Amino acid sequence: MATIYEVSKLAGVSLATVSRVINHSSAVKQKTREKVEKAMLDLNYKPNSVAKSLASSRSDCVGVLVSELQGFFFTNMMAAIEIECRKYDKHIIATASDQTHEKDGIQFLISRNCDALIIQVEALSDEYLIELCSGDLPIVIVNRYIEEIADNCIDVDNEQGQYLATQYLIDKGHREIVYVSGPANKNDAMMRLKGYKQALSDNDIKIEQDRIFEGDYLQEGGAKAFEYFYHSDIPYTAILCANDEMATAVMASAREKGLNLPDDLSILGFDDVVFSRYTYPKLTTIEHPIRKMGEMAARSVLKRVYKKNVGELINHFSPSIIERDSVKSILG
Question: Where are the beta strands (DSSP E) in 164-308?
């Protein structure tokens, strides 16, 4: 396979000149451009990303950092980012870091010469992220809102989402609602728990700590939560879960105990991941537009870094209830 060096030698020009031709720079005389293009044709040369970046000082790569590389939530986000970037011949470099290694993940992506970073982080402080965004490298933060750098954030109102979910159950007649939260150290989990408590308070329903089980956002956590409530003396007619993955485990565990859903127990999730519409019964949930948020994060980079016309950018999303079959009205 021919290289850019061979093209340079055959055309009798510098590597930078070949790169300018590849990048369609106007700073090349027509006669020189024709020499380079003829050399490329004679050698059957196909430009690669390295050659394209020589003149532009761009790698055409966007770094993406997430908490994990498994699960529907993060794969949906990354897929959306990748699809948007590919439309403009940009690529992503993805890595995952748990909460103790988020800074390492960011430094790794910076070392890869990424043109911008799209990050979803939990443990890093607002102060650190504000400082990070003050540098020369463009940063987009997904699923988190920081007022001082609001233009860098793509977020959804998690508190409002869980408030809507709790109020929906209350409007269906449920007042004995137990809650399976996400991990207490995750920002979105904290905001969802806050929404649950606020809705109870606004409806004069006592907030009781033993009605809250801290889950892990995984099916295992949902199964453990159901066992906890099932073997307790706590009365409940509905189980509200902080995400769909735990909600589906609650549903499976309840059926294993012989409960008829939703007649014996109402269950409600959060995220509206793809499998939530294929459960039995189909899961009522809160829409979390993570795929759309991924698209917006990618478009933000494409517009800011690569000067592409990508249309309207949305930084803040409002959640909505997706009503299906897993909640029963017990009014009257």
Answer: 177-181, 212-214, 238-241, 266-268, 285-287
